[in-house]
Amino acid sequence: MKARISTKNNRAKKAAEKRALADRELEEMERNASVEHLRYVLVTTDQEIKQNLEILKIKAEDNIEAYKKNQSLRAAEAKLVKKAQKKIHSRINLCNEFKGINIERALHGDN
């Protein structure tokens, strides 16, 4: 009878050890899986960050080029405005304007 009890106890101990070992292996596998998942997320996130940085660099370069073009256009426009103002305020132009007024008065009879 004692032999049966000790055999049952041994079997129960072995079964408990197997369950404990299986539980430890399962926990380790879960831990490894979570570590692998985190590595995947980090690598993916790192790649996304690099791609976003490249996109931002391209946009920044485009903005810089657009700003330079805008500045050069403004400078050219300022030169044209300055030339036009000089032309408007020149003596010859003023004389021509007065002549034009006199011609219009003469045509309409408003002497």
Describe the 3D structure.
The chain has 111 residues and is mainly alpha-helical. The protein has one domain (2-108). It is built from 2 helices and no strands. The longest helix has 87 residues, at 2-88. It is rod-shaped. The N and C termini lie far apart (147 Å). The relative contact order is 0.03.
Write the layout of secondary structure elements.
Blueprint: H1 2-88, H2 91-108
Which characteristics define this entry?
coiled coil, 2 helices, 111 residues, rod-shaped, mainly alpha
Number of strands: 0
Number of separate structural domains? 1
Distance between the termini: 147 Å
The number of helical segments is 2
Helix content: over 70%
Write the element-wise H/E pattern from the N-terminal end onward: HH
Q: What assembly state would you assign to the polypeptide chains in this entry?
A: single chain
Low-confidence stretches: none
Largest sheet: none
Structural class of the secondary structure composition? mainly alpha
Brief account:
The protein has 111 residues and is an all-alpha fold. It has helices at residues 2-88, 91-108. It has one domain.
